[in-house]
Amino acid sequence: MGTTPLNVTLTVDLTPHTVDWLTIHRRTYNGEIPGPTLRVRPGDKLYIKLVNNLRPDNLVRERGHGPISPNITNLHLHGMHVSPKEPHDNVFIEIGPGSSYQYEFHIPDDHPAGTFYYHHHIHGNSHFCVGGGLVGFIIVEDDVTTMPPELSAISCPLNCHKEVQLAVGTNFRYRFLPTDPILSYSNLQKDLGDPSRNLDQLASGTGTMEDWLMDPANNVDYILTNGQMWPTVTLTVGEVKRFRILNAATIEVLEITIKELGCQMMVLAWDGIYVDAPYRTRMVVLSGGARVDVAVRCWFSGDFTMTTVMAEENDPILSSEYWQMRFDQDLLTLHVEEKAAVFDLEPFPTSLPAHPSYYRDLRRIDDSEIDGRFVIEFGPEHEVNREHFKDAMYPRYKYEVGTIQEWYVINTEQLKPHPLHIHVNHFQIISYNEYTHPWGALHPVNKTKSAYYDLQGNLCDQQFLHFAHNLDWPTSNPPNFKYHGHHNRSRDSIPGYIPLGEWRDTINVPPLGSMTIRFVADRFTGTQMIHCHNLNHVDRGMGLVVEVVEQGESTHGAHTASGGAYPGTCRRTDPYPDVVTGVSTTNVNVGSHEHGH
Hints:
This protein is mostly beta strands. The protein is built from seven helices and 32 strands. 6% of the residues lie in helices and 35% in strands. A hairpin with a 3-residue loop joins β20 (372-379) and β21 (383-384). The relative contact order is 0.13. Keywords: Metal-binding, Oxidoreductase.
């Protein structure tokens, strides 16, 4: 149990970074991509002084939903169960150029051991800055006196040589395509007027390095692993190593597998929470911000390739149409050497540490134990619950600390998945539900506004509350049901689906998807952020805040409805949980539920 305060300084600055033959300049922590790994233990007090050494600038400072200066920064401890209040994990703090801020993080005595990370979290420039390299690992170490021996054998603090940390996703995608300008890092630099652009003249005199990088013919379109292209990790035959893998990308989903036969992966934990028991897998699928711990072992010597692929089997949940977030690329080489001694397979862990009490299994609890219900609805044009993010003073829901919450997560988009991230509290996956909710589309007349239709293609009558001046809308617009039916699929055979009962802080919500999650609002009050972890989406408004209050304190005053319409509903008469009718889920039109009975 940690007791000694840990003092760390993280300095954000524009520093050179060399990838293969090219030196670029990126905003980094202490000059590294990823930043330095921070190792803590439950009970520790972590003090981080964040120093902003970036220069004052005249860059874009557009407030609202778009880019602001990338020289403003702050810090978020992604997945950590810590207070969201100042001076703790308050993501609404802004640290300008030449300034610093002293963060204090009190890690609970019963905090789970696992893989977490810290990153920049300024609304409006996260896609650019996090993609540029402002990420780093936080490892909460296990108690060596209680962890199973087979797990201790591949883990710090006693066997750190067995751990491999992989931060996958730093943006090295320079190729410019007019259809997807947000994918080009150089184009983002141009939009911001960033002084770190690659403007050196080519020796040929035919333009700048930036021109060459953006030329589609040169196909400079990669993501980096630990800041490099195709690094090598060495194992010996039969050896087990613990891989802590972070999807540090801002848009991309990782569908990671080992290309050649001869190696095995065993899942140990997701998002810093151990699974109930280790299980074998041939592929792990990580949305942006997700982490997975896998034990890896190979039977043969030689070189093996860890790669991310656009796996056709994941199309139902990740969508083949939304190709910007999926791609094929080798990530690293596993170099497996012959063993000098007698060949012997090291064992995989067979048991794992238990969860803390606030991550107990909630699948079979009675409805009477659920204290509050809420709907999160992803919609078109970067909206959550039919509005863009406003500010930290505009909570969409309030609930008391210590309560058990049941939330319904809905994606109204027909072809586009969205990764959901909830700050402070992990949540348990209860069910994939039948989708009975509206589906979203652009306003058929004014293409800048969102419209909602029922499953028969009829415009939801609530639209007239929003756009009463457009009564000449078409009354039918047939939906694309290609990705409908997640509750009926054989999800065990599709790696992109999450096994029911697992705990996560970041999940992929599929197109026309409806999921039920539950969690205990443990210990921490304050304003908590909920958003799409496609950082280009949240920069454009795809987020909201909720407020956790003390027990007995009023929960009134939340802005739950949007223009009189409630997320997840299509008609004025549709019930909404705990807001319109206050009835239990058995009477609420939010789809069927699998409670695991």
